[in-house]
UniProtKB/TrEMBL annotation:
Residues 1-33 are annotated as: Disordered. Residues 14-24 have a biased composition (Low complexity). It comes from Brevibacterium samyangense. This is Septum formation initiator family protein. Keywords: Membrane, Transmembrane, Transmembrane helix.
Length: 176
């Protein structure tokens, strides 16, 4: 059994006084921990934070502070990558649509149909008739008639504004 020493190097006795060896029975019983100030550190209520713990916590905080910008940069880059992937998907779908359009334009039947529809082309021997619809012209004239006429100003708007401000400036309490 080894010698139990406290931080100060003195010998700490873990023994309490026994009732038959020099201690009177009238003396109140108290624990050795409560009487010995060196042993107070070993109880849960008297715990102190060691230098080692402080250094490790400080180092952890320092590392977290150092890596926080890197994590933020990583998150930002992840968002940018996601946006770029969406752009790539949109571009690929556009490329597919353009390839389909290119295939259609290489088809002579498709080109002939488009020329007939858009440019009013006809095949040799055919006659083209263009029908003018009078109903469209009538609806356009009715739309013009339904519009309310805009008032014509006698003077420019800024002159009217200046006149209005002058009129308000000359107003008195009696005329209001």
């Amino acid at each position: 059994m080894g010698i139990n020493r406290s931080r100060t190097g003195r010998r700490a006795s873990g023994r309490t006084a026994r009732p038959g060896r020099g201690a009177s029975k009238a003396a109140p019983k108290t624990s050795a921990v409560a009487l010995d100030p060196d042993r107070i550190d070993r109880t849960a209520g008297g715990r102190r934070v060691s230098l080692r713990t402080v250094v490790l916590v400080g180092l952890g905080i320092l590392l977290a502070a150092m890596f926080a910008p890197s994590v933020n940069t990583g998150i930002t880059q992840w968002q940018q990558i996601s946006a770029l992937e969406r752009d790539i998907e949109a571009t690929e779908s556009e490329v597919e649509a353009l390839q389909h359009k290119q295939e259609q334009l290489s088809d002579p039947d498709y080109l002939a149909a488009r020329a007939r529809e858009e440019q009013n082309y006809v095949k040799p021997g055919e006659e083209l008739y263009i029908v003018i619809d009078d109903a469209e012209e009538d609806t356009a004239a009715e739309a013009d008639a339904d519009r309310t006429p805009r008032p014509v100003r006698a003077q420019p708007w800024y002159q009217e504004l200046v006149d209005s401000l002058q009129a308000v400036g000359f107003a008195t309490e009696e005329t209001r």
